[in-house]
Amino acid sequence: MTSTSTPSTFTYKTVGDLDIELDVWIPELDSATPAHLPALVWFHGGGGFCGDKGPDKSQWFEQWIKDITVKKNQHCLISANYRLLIPTTAHHMIEDIKDVFTFISQKLSHTPIPGSSITIDPTKLAVGGDSFGGYCARLAGIYAEPKPKAVVSMFGMGGDFLSPFYLTSITDPAKMPFGLPLRDLSDPKLLAYYDRTVVETSTLAGQDEQMRPLGGERQELYTITLQKGDYLDWLTGVKGLAETLKQNQGAESDEATKWLEFPSAAREVIPQFLLTPSFPPTFLLHGTADSAVLIAESMTTERQLKDLGVETQFIAHEGGEHGFDAECKVVDGDPLYEELKPVEYWLKAKLA
Asked: Quick one: which of 142, 199, 325, 349 is 20 to 30 A from 342 by CA?
């Protein structure tokens, strides 16, 4: 029998001397029996600045997602790293996301996972992610080949990068994610956090018992950029973009006008402008009390996709903060699992 306790790790691409990796978790099957299995490709969160494919470095590794995929649905789970923001941008992430799917179709589709006879069926792929990983999943639904059959976004970013949440600097501590304190943005030490020249694909994520960031400076960049209101500058690589948008956008601006206000160099990384009727069926999950990624992001995506005629499901977890699913146990009777169980059935049906 194959084992689900540890993944097989692959380098799916090399940039310079930097290896970028993914993990493949497989179900317990008779190792002598060839199996061509569906897979869920998962991208981690961390605001784009930190995180890891997990679970050894990521407090936010979606254990329940792994369990419903590998144990319940008997599918494979592929958890991938990608180049992190600063000095790279979302443009580089699109390249990485596309290369994950190319690696699956060209390598994992015909080369068995070590210790098994399991290969991945590239015609039966879903994609998902939590937080920033939900943004990556949106990008995969737009750019990846082979095209995923379904998208899962757990409290995902990228639903509305034009909201005041991203464009307005924070002066009220009550509006900081997780109730974190405001930072002194004039502090030279803080500003030095942006001076990063080394490309990275993996850091620790989460907090210790004293709520100190395990990812250090990288982890703090998300809340700092939100406080400054310049997150889009770093995502798109267009310096001054956030300030330009703040000045140009009025209450009467429609989507077409907003699109024209975006420089061409930034448009391809903003999912809300790129959704079409061919976007995959999508399942959105979001806590109603999320302070790090507002539930309005998922609501905006749901509205856009339904207007386009794309099949969309949505679970809004009442009172849930960012990462509300962390305590979910895949055991019948667990209240959170019972609420989230439709995701399991939906993915199984989409990859049948």
From this structure: 142
DSSP state of 32: T
- Give the model confidence (pLDDT) of 79-104 as tens digits: 999 999 999 999 999 999 999 999 99
Residues whose CB falls within 8 Å of the CB of residue 71, separated by 6 or more in sequence, listed in order: 4, 27, 28, 330
Return the CA Rg of the chain: 20
Domain stop point among 267, 299, 323: 267
Q: Domain of 199?
A: 164-267
Residues 6 or more apart whose CB falls under 8 angstroms from that of 336 comprise 324, 325, 327, 328, 329
The pair phi, psi for residue 238, each rounded to 5°, is -105, 100
Inter-CA distances, 86 with 113, 137, 172, 219, Å: 33, 20, 27, 12
CA distance 96 to 100: 6
Tokens of 5: 């306790």
DSSP state of 293: S
Q: What is the pLDDT of residues 180-201, one digit of tens each?
A: 999 999 998 888 888 999 999 9
